[in-house]
Amino acid sequence: MIITSVHVGSRYPVNRKAIRASVERILKEHNVDEIEVSVSVVGSRRMVELNERLMKHEGVTDVLSFPQHDPEQHKKEFPHTVKRDDPVSHLGDIVVCFPEAVKEARKLGKMVDAQICFLVEHGLLHLLGFHHD
Predict the structure, then answer these.
(1) Is 125 exposed, middle or buried (0-12, 13-18, 19+ CB in 10 A)?
(2) How far is CA 90 from each of CA 63, 70, 80, rounded to the nearest angstrom?
(3) Where do the structural domains in the chain lie, given as residue ranges?
(4) pTM score of the predicted model
(5) What topology is assigned to 2-127 in CATH?
(6) 70 pLDDT exceeds 90?
């Protein structure tokens, strides 16, 4: 069973169903099941705060990923860690900055929900261990 928890600031109109479908598609493509992922859609101030406090990078960014079991991040506070007693394990947390997704969507000529799903997929690939320079 794949569980996708989606947390969205009330003022951000996002397609939660599309986000869940994107997560499920990527996980199935990588033969991952029995997993839980949390996705948060936040504003610029919250993203700056997370980026600076947890990642030690200055300013806003479009997406952050926080793996639940990354030894390099074991002391970091995760935005939405879910504790569960069942066999479903929590892969990690993905945080998307809504205003940055809007800017990128406009620049690329995409729908905002499509850009949000792209960013969620990008973050999910990081949680699965795929990284870039």
Answers:
(1) middle
(2) 19, 12, 10
(3) 2-127
(4) 0.84
(5) Collagenase (Catalytic Domain) (3.40.390)
(6) no
